[in-house]
Amino acid sequence: SLTLALWQLKEAGWFRYAKGFVFGRPTFYDEKASKNGTYEEVVMSVLGDMDLPIILDADIGHKPPQFSMINGGLGTLCSKDGKAKLTYEYFFEV
């Protein structure tokens, strides 16, 4: 379950250096089958006590429309009033 997966990552220390969280729209999350609530409720129940910014339903992931994020890329994400801007830093070796 999403609750268990997030909880295990949190307890294992994977979020120790996190500055915030960005989640795309879920493709296969079935709220009717979940015993833990809506997608938003599950994320907030596990990560809400970390006092970090959490963006839900972002245009990333596998559900269109989606913005491609570069795996391993360094970037800055700014969000205000329901709008976000993602800026990447590019490093090239010659």
Question: What would your notes on this structure say?
Answer:
The structure is a single chain. The protein has helices spanning 2-11, 39-47, and strands at 21-24, 54-58, 74-80, 83-89. It is an alpha+beta fold. The protein has a two-stranded parallel sheet. The protein has a two-stranded antiparallel ribbon with strand order 3-4. The chain is globular and about 50 Å long. It starts with a helix and ends in a 5-residue tail after the last strand. The model has no long low-confidence stretch (mean pLDDT 86).
Short description:
The protein has 94 residues and is of the alpha+beta class. The protein has two helices and four strands. The longest helix has 10 residues, at 2-11.
Secondary structure blueprint with pairings:
Layout: H1 2-11, E1 21-24, H2 39-47, E2 54-58, E3 74-80, E4 83-89
Parallel strand pairs: 1-2
Antiparallel strand pairs: 3-4
Most strands sheet: 2 strands, parallel
Order of helices and strands: HEHEEE
How many independent structural domains? 1
Total count of helical runs of at least 4 residues: 2
Q: Overall pLDDT, averaged? A: 86
Q: Which bin fits the share of residues in helices?
A: 10-25%
- As residue ranges, the low-confidence spans are none
Task: Specify Rg, calculated over alpha carbons.
Answer: 15 Å
Distance from first to last alpha carbon: 45 Å
Per DSSP E runs of 2 or more residues, the count of β-strands stands at 4
Overall shape: it is: globular
* Strand line-up in the sheet with most strands: 1-2
Structural class designation: alpha+beta
Assess the beta-strand content as a share of residues. 15-25%
